[in-house]
Amino acid sequence: MLSPLQCLGLFLFCAGNETHKEPMEDQRRRDIRSSFYDGMFAHVFAILTGGVFLTGFALHLGMNDFMIGLLASLPFLVTVFQLPASIHISRRGARKTTAFHAALAARAAWIFVLVAAVVPFGSPSMKLFFILGIIFLSYAAASVSYVAWLSWMSDLIPEEIRGRFFGTRNMLCGASGTVAMLIFGKLLDRLNGESFGSLPLGFGLTFLVAAGFGILGLRFLNGISEPVQQTTTCEGGVSLRMLSRHLVEDRNFRKFLVYSLTWNFSVYFAGPFFTVYFLRDLGYSYSFVAALGVISGFSDILGMQAWGRISDKVKNKAVIQFASWVAIFLPLAWVTVRPQCIVFPVILHVLGGGFWAGINLCTNNLLLRITPRQNRPIFLSLFHMVTGLGAAGGPVLGGLVLTGIAQMELHLLSWNLLSIQVLFFISTLFRLLSFQILKTVHEPEEATVGKVIRIFRSLRGLNLASGFNMVLHPFVEVEKSGKEGRGSTRD
Q: N or C: fewer beta carbons within 10 Å in the chain?
């Protein structure tokens, strides 16, 4: 089996060596390499069209708190399109074709966002809603692409290396996104406050480069082979009645749905407003917010490696339980941050990046473990649709609450609270309540949180020195693996 070092070594090794003796191994190496490249290009696109860049763009266009909440809900509202897409995939296959064309539409749409932003037409509110409509269509296409891609990867990557593969892939994605965030955050900060039109130029360049990277990355996505679909469907296709029967019979999946629905609602009730809090209320510059993102991304890179190794030993539920205790109370910690504070935000981003990496990685892996192979695309799309609705409702309700209490004077003991900080308190309470539902979900061969702690203490090579050693010297692990397993095609 491939270790995390071997996965990264395989990526770099294959980039410079295209000649292999074993056709099966040659194809697998090309697929892994192409998937890594695809992930990095796609992540640069996602970073530059989301987060601080999208929030800053919304504030620049004059969107209010409700519209910002609505904007944040769009990626989750569009999950309703995943169910019909999954039914199509289950009946006809074509996961690669679906993922490719939907991703192309999603990424090219941002060119039209730029055009709509600079061309004068209609009233200001009409223009804002028109831009929201284009972004909605982009997210809809990306949502369809994602469910096809996830089903595709679940058959392409063997389960025994899936945790380390996704951990390494996400690590590389985080690295590429970190570089992009740092460069373009500095660009916006330099242009902000310059001559009239400089900041719009900065957003234009950012989104244009994002679309370019996204479209170029499709070359690597197209280079990944599509295995024979292992999921099976009943003759005649999939019906909603059949899906309902599966849901009635699968109590464990229903519990996981309820947990994910409530957890996503709790997180996104306040999550999209953190960037607003940084830029508007704390007065942080674009470059500092981008630097915080870089720190979080670097922590995410190391975290993906650590959690990928741990999850292969204890599976996924225990990792989510362990990491969630940090995620639950992070909003409360941000209430104590003041505009002049520099060190504490850095600490919070280190903790947040590292522990959210474990939650995100293992939630996807847990989903794949508890869903049946039969009609898996249907279950995946249903999961993302239901949980997406929870995540969509969170920021919309949060925006309404924030708008309603904006003019109120709020106090907690001797503290004068900002209205946005009230959202952080409410989000913490919601997270704590929804976390209890996870305890009722069963994962095959699940371990206890205590075992996670014991393994976490015993891990070696998670410091910075070994982290850089892993990046700079991956060939040792690949060569060692080749000598130990020569003549075998098993990973």
A: N
Give the span between the Cα atoms of 287 and 289, in whole angstroms.
5
Q: What is the dihedral of CA 145, 146, 151, 157, to 10 degrees?
A: 110
Residue 76 CB partners (closer than 8 Å, separation 6+): 264, 268, 387, 388, 389, 390, 391, 392
SS3 264: helix
CA distance 363 to 383: 11
pLDDT mean over 303-331: 86
11-57 pLDDT, tens digit per residue, is: 443 444 444 444 546 777 788 888 899 999 999 999 999 888 998 89
Tell me the backbone φ, ψ of residue 17, rounded to 5 degrees: -140, 105
Domain 4-228+240-484 listed as CATH 1.20.1250.20? yes
Residue 267 CB contacts under 8 Å (≥ 6 apart), including other chains: 327, 391, 394, 427, 431
Residue 385: C-alpha distances to residues 23, 84, 155 (Å): 39, 11, 22
Rounded CA-CA distance 59/75 in Å is 19
pTM for the complete prediction?
0.69
| Model confidence pLDDT, tens digit, residues 149-205 | 888 887 777 777 777 788 788 888 888 888 888 888 888 888 776 555 577 888 889
How many residues would you count in the chain?
Answer: 491
The Cα–Cα gap between 115 and 208 comes to: 11
Nearest to 54 by CA among 474, 472, 395, 481: 395
Question: Is the distance from CB of 317 to CB of 445 less than 8 angstroms?
Answer: no
Domain ranges, ordered by start, for the chain: 4-228+240-484
Task: Using alpha carbons, select from 77, 76, 58 the residue that is nearest to residue 66.
Answer: 58
Return the bridge partners of 415, or none.
412
d(CA 189, CA 278): 14
Q: In angstroms, how far is CA 40 from the centroid of its own chain?
A: 13
In the chain, the amino acid numbered 374 is Q
Q: Which amino acid is at 419?
A: S
Alpha-carbon span 42 to 165, nearest angstrom = 17
